[in-house]
Amino acid sequence: MCFALAAAIAASNRKAGGSTEAVAASSTSKATFTLTAEAKELASKFTSNKGSLPWPVEKGYVSTYYGKQPHPIVTTATIESNGVRITTEEGSKARAVFNGTVLSVQILSGNKKAVLIQHGNYITVYKNLENVTVSTGDKVVTKQEIGTIFTDRVTGKTIIGFVLSKNTTTEDPSLWIYKM
Domain limits of the chain? Predict the structure, then answer.
């Protein structure tokens, strides 16, 4: 995921006419956005909403938490999660947690999709979407539907992966989302 974030940051910086150092840094884990005054203001507003952002789904519960934790199946192993997984109902829509710009729409394995949204120097990532209703460059607003979450036909589960990062450094979404 870090590579996808760095690539998205590099593309954003090229589009904004960012410095070559910021663009060159995209090949490392230290990639950072070159921010306009407008983007700095958006990042400040995003930061001021820490702990009160809406959930990326209307209803659901966290089924995998951020950080190191026991593997859900192999009890002797641990996993390191760079985001959260939220289990919801079939047909549920993913929603933007804050105003921003769609950085990219990516095709994942199994033809599932991911949407990356920029909020200044923050990025939110919505993974495991069956289809999307936004395109790269679109402006989105808080709680805007951005796509339908994929339902696994074998397990019957509908799970969205949600990642929040500042530049390429992931952060615990539960510190940002209201009562997560």
Answer: 34-175
Q: Model confidence over 62-118: pLDDT tens digits? A: 999 999 998 878 989 999 999 999 999 999 999 999 999 999 999 998 899 999 999
Provide the b/e sequence for 152-166 (b: ≥16 CB within 10 Å): eeeeeebbbbbbbbb
What's the first-to-final CA gap in the chain, in angstroms?
22
| Superfamily per CATH, domain 34-175 | Glucose Permease (Domain IIA) (2.70.70.10)
Output phi, psi for 130, to 5 deg. Answer: -75, -40
Structure tokens at 53: 């952002």
DSSP 89-130: -TTPEEE-SSSEEEEEEEE-GGG-EEEEEEETTEEEEEEEEE
Distances in Å between the alpha carbon of 31 and those of 6, 7, 119, 147, 177?
Answer: 6, 9, 15, 27, 25
pTM here is 0.87
- Residue 139's pLDDT is 98
Residues 14-66: pLDDT tens digits?
776 654 444 333 344 468 888 899 999 999 999 999 999 999 999 999 999 99
β partners of residue 115: 105, 126
